[in-house]
Amino acid sequence: MAAASRRIRFRLPRPGRLAPSIGGRRFNSWEGPRIQVERVDPVSSAEALRRRRYGPSSWDGQVPWERGSMIVPEVLGDDDVEAFIKGELDHFVPMQPRPVSMQEVLDMLEPQRIAKFLHVEVPIRIAERIRWIQDIPNWEDIKELREIHTSHMKVFRDLRLVQRRPTLDAFTAVVQHALHAQQPVRHKVAIAMHRLHTERGEEFGSGFTDPWADDFLLNCIGTEMLMSQYLACVTMEDSGVLQRGHAMAGIIDPDCDVAQICRDTAMRVQQITEDNTGRCPLIQVEVFQERAIPRFSYIPGFLRFIMTEVLKNSCRATAEVAKSDRDVQKRPINVIVCADDHEVAIRVSDRARGIPFGVGPKVWSYLYTTAGKGPSYGEGATSLAGYGIGLPLSRLYARYLGGSLNLVSLPGYGTSVDLFLRRVNANQVEIAKYALEERGKVVFIKTHPEKHWNCYMVIKSCGALSLKIVTTFRNVSLVAYGAMMLGEPIKPKHVTGYALALVGFLGYTYFGNAREQPKSVAASDNGVERSPHERQTICQEEKRVYAWFELTGKLNAGHRSTQFVRYFGCLVRWILGECVKVSGFFVATLTLFTLVPQVVAAGNNTGTGCECGEADDVEPILPLYATLPMIAILVALSGLFSGLTLGLMGLDVIGLQIVQKGENKEMARCAARIAPIRESGNQLLCTLLLGNVAVNSALSILTADIASGLVGFFVSTALIVTFGEILPQAACSRYALQVGARTVPIVRFLMILFFVITKPMSIALDWLLGQEVGTIHSRTELMEMLKLQISLGAVDAEEGKIAQQVAEGALSFRDKQVGDIMTPLEDAYFLNSDTKLGYDAIREIFETGFSRIPIYGRDKHEYRGLLYTKDLMLADPEDEMKVGDFIQIFGRKVETVFEETKLVACLNAFKKGGTHMALVRKAPVKVMNCQDVD
Ligand SMILES: Nc1ncnc2c1ncn2[C@@H]1O[C@H](COP(=O)(O)OP(=O)(O)OP(=O)(O)O)[C@@H](O)[C@H]1O
Ligand SMILES: [Mg+2]
Q1: Are strands 895-898 and 6-7 parallel, antiparallel or unpaired?
Q2: SS3 of residue 549 by DSSP
Q3: Which DSSP letter does residue 429 get?
Q4: What is the largest CA-CA distance in the chain?
Q5: Segments making up each domain of the chain, as ranges
């Protein structure tokens, strides 16, 4: 080693970063420290460190360190490295881990990006764990804690010394090593907790050990996830498959098939159970995908772990409780997989007599196990059970991304474990330690992806700006108008016009602002902690707008179409809202700039006694203050009539009957309410059309009355088209049943009101066109409709196929002939009359599964009789009686039918005769049995 001493040069830390501490001394962040140390040969020092500390895999012998944060020492001696790491630890310990959401992890798929995050985040998490260990008094006395501490220090040191540039190779090697070192930690933690509890029970009861282990292992899960994700991204990039939208995004599967994972896990656990107990319980996996398909973006490894542990427990309990192999089969374990738009749920229920009542919440303790009774804790553990960490650790994995795991035991009967997992990426946020500590407090973590949030804010700002412009415009106009009026003699008409204009504008501004207000309140949620109640009060508006942005690419795979429909609905609602706003503004502007000046001018004309034409002297039908509300009412009525004409008349009587019998209770209720009025179809049609035409005409007259004829024409056309036709029809075509059901009383009232006119009209129509009949589909149309509905997902594929077969069979049943479905003679199972009914023959007969077997003589054309399989109960295999003789005892009969006989007739014959098999005549003779008829 060179003896000459030399100054270590440090680069200045970047402004705003915390100053590091080296050897306990903390440096000001703007001064480069000047430490006088011995001259160290960098190569030999690095090599010595490598040999002493790291082993061959994690160090490539190059200049080893790069600090992501403060200083970059170029050369350090061994002691300085110790001081350096200590300083780093002190620096990292107070830092809090930053919980990430699944969405963020998905956004960081490039290895360079995730490595940058990991390089700082993982040391923070490891430093936190090191501190937790060191906080336990006399932790060095517990062997497992010592081992965990040493391995954590090693990983921390590796991570702080490794560099990420110019390539990621060294960093990747360190992460691999760190992940590998973390594997035995969970068992060691369990053993350490057990040791603490048994050796120092008075100090460390389960009240300490369980929360401690929960926090520690939750931290481990988070680190494990980040490191595995990084390694997966590196591997995928190396193999050239890393790209968004690929089947896997690192360890995350954007289209994780929950049911398939359950099935695979079930098979593996069955194998483990058989290896350990010699018994193999039955596991049945059922999938319900009526409302949503149980696929979502999740980490399959986590789901596999949870399912393995839960199923292992159930299998072990079942195998232990069952008295025999048959008993095991009588206690199947049921796995139910289901989902809705927000969550995916799995229930595992067994019939292994449950957990004794007294055990209670102890099952969640790391100290509770009824297996592995070896000389010391965990020694008798097998791959099936023995550490007592399966349940608590599974619950941690479930909770880690915001899910939950609950257990219900019915003592004496069985246990049921319910797993709930969150579906939306942005809601799947890591639960950090402090969330467990402060149970009940909800930490509201930013859930909106940054870029969508920005987009939302831009639009919101644009909206606010336009509102400001409009408001200013209004104020200026009002002032101008006021000034204009001051030059004129003021009359009551002026005041009314002015007041109306003011009310219109104020109303618009008020409601406009009221709609804007909650947006800005909700905007402050971004990154702020809120209680559950506060979260619930987040404005619907924001949710809708945000949901719309989410459509642009953040849809959870698997239920894309459902979400699209929902978001499309949001968009339509949003557009409708905007239309209402704009038209409010339009009406108000019209009042101010067109109607009011006209009224004023009319007043002036009368006042000054100028000579006007006769038209100008015509009195308006209604005073202005009554006309405007009347216009609004008429527009609403016009919309109602036109919407209902489409909504109610578009509903077919037969269609309504079908909906009434359907599974959707709400729809059925709506259909039941509509059905009575829909039955008088022509009267309903006449009422709605009459109402619509009357209202539209009145609207035109009124608008023309208060404005000029041309303005009246344009205004009434615009109002009728927008609010009287387009919007109501768009809404009613989509929500016909709901709107129709809610407006039944109004429609009834109108039908009574117009009865005198519409009844005769409808009678005339009925007479001319005949009573209305619903759409009747032909058989082929019915079949096509069935196929179409099945392909659109009315029922799941499997069920749909069966339904289609059954329906096809039922529809074509009347036309089918026996010849169409019979089993040809050569394919039928026959027995020769000389067959001896010994053990082998009887077994063979039972194995075929047939209940009736024809017996032939020389060849299959010589029919001898019929053997009922159940009669074989009376046969003694020892006697080896010939089957030809055996059937003589019972004399079972068989029907004979012709090939052209209709299936209906054949079925009736079967019902009468009590037999289910018939011989079909006309060469070649064939046999038909009841399965064919079914
Ligand atoms: N479905 C079940 N039926 C009956 N007892 C159960 C069931 N699930 C769990 N238990 C009881 O709860 C205890 C704790 O379960 P846990 O999975 O945490 O640990 P373990 O199975 O004993 O060991 P391992 O850590 O290897 O899973 C079990 O030992 C068992 O006594
Ligand atoms: Mg277990």
Answers
A1: unpaired
A2: helix
A3: B
A4: 131
A5: 6-238, 253-437, 446-607, 619-776, 779-812, 816-933
- Pairwise CA distance, residues 686 & 659, whole Å: 25
535-539: long-range pairs with CB below 8 Å, 24+: 535/442, 535/444
Which residue, 226, 233, 152, is CA-closest to 185? 152
Tell me the pairing of strands 333-339 and 283-287: parallel
In contact, 404 and 249? CB cutoff 8 Å: no
**Taking Cα atoms as reference points, which of 688, 681, 687 lies closest to residue 766?**
681
Least trusted range by pLDDT, from 201-210, 401-410, 563-572, 708-717: 563-572
Q: For residue 699, give Cα distances in angstroms to 646, 779, 922.
A: 21, 49, 80
Decide the pairing of beta strands 852-856 and 831-832: parallel
As a whole number, mean pLDDT of residues 298-325 equals 92
Compute, in angstroms, the gap from residue 332 CA to the centroid of ligand 1: 18
**How far is residue 468's CA from residue 464's CA, in Å, rounded to a whole number?**
6
Q: What confidence tier does 65 reach under pLDDT thresholds 50, 70, 90?
A: very low
Ligand 2 center to residue 383 CA distance, Å? 9
**Smallest Cα–Cα separation from 727: which of 509, 748, 735?**
735
CATH T-level assignment (fold) for domain 816-933? CBS-domain (3.10.580)
Identify the nearest ligand to the CA of 383 by its number. Answer: 1
Instruction: Name every protein residue with a CB atom under 6 angstroms from any ligand 1 atom.
Output: 309, 313-314, 317, 350, 352, 355, 363, 368-371, 381, 385-391, 415
Instruction: Considering every ligand atom shown, identify the ligand nearest to the alpha carbon of residue 382 and give its number.
Output: 1
SS (H, E, C) 160-171: HHCCCCCCCHHH
Distance between CA atoms of residues 120 and 100, nearest Å: 14
662-to-291, 505, 671 alpha-carbon distances in Å: 15, 48, 10
Residue 46 has pLDDT above 70, yes or no: no
Q: Which residue, by CA, sits nearest to atom 8 of ligand 1?
A: 313
Which CATH fold topology does 253-437 show?
Heat Shock Protein 90 (3.30.565)
**Rounded to whole angstroms, how far apart are CA atoms 650 and 630?**
29
521 — pLDDT class (breaks 50, 70, 90): very low
Q: Exposed, middle or buried: residue 166 (CB in 10 Å: 0-12, 13-18, 19+)?
A: exposed
* pLDDT confidence tier of residue 564, bands split at 50, 70 and 90: low
Q: What is the CATH T-level fold of the domain 6-238, as seen in this structure? A: Butyryl-CoA Dehydrogenase, subunit A; domain 3 (1.20.140)
Q: Share the mean pLDDT of the chain.
A: 71
Give nearest CA residue, ligand 1 atom 7: 313
Which are the contacts of 189, defined by CB distance < 8 A and separation ≥ 6? 144, 148, 213, 216, 217, 366
Pocket probe mutation, ligand 1, options 312, 320, 363, 416, max atoms within 8 Å of Cβ:
363
- Asked if 226 and 106 count as a contact pair (C-beta separation under 8 A), the reply is no
- β-strand 295-298 against 21-22: which pairing, if any? unpaired
Question: 415 CA to middle of ligand 1, Å?
Answer: 11
Question: 837 — phi, psi (to 5°)?
Answer: -85, 65
pLDDT for the residue numbered 523: 31
Span from the CA of 126 to the centroid of ligand 2 (angstroms) = 27
For ligand 2, the distance from its centroid to the CA atom of residue 384, given in whole angstroms, is: 7
- pLDDT band (50, 70, 90) for residue 365: confident
Nearest to 678 by CA among 655, 697, 702, 698: 655
Q: How far apart are CA 402 and CA 422, in angstroms?
A: 6
CA angle, residues 781, 783, 788, in degrees to nearest 5 = 90
CA-closest residue to ligand 1 atom 13: 369
Structure-token pair, residue 165:
């540039």
CA distance 266 to 269: 5
Question: Residue holding tokens 């026996």?
Answer: 818
Work out the pLDDT band at 537, boundaries 50, 70, 90. Answer: very low
For the chain, the first-to-last Cα distance in angstroms comes to: 95
Token digits of residue 764: 């005339």
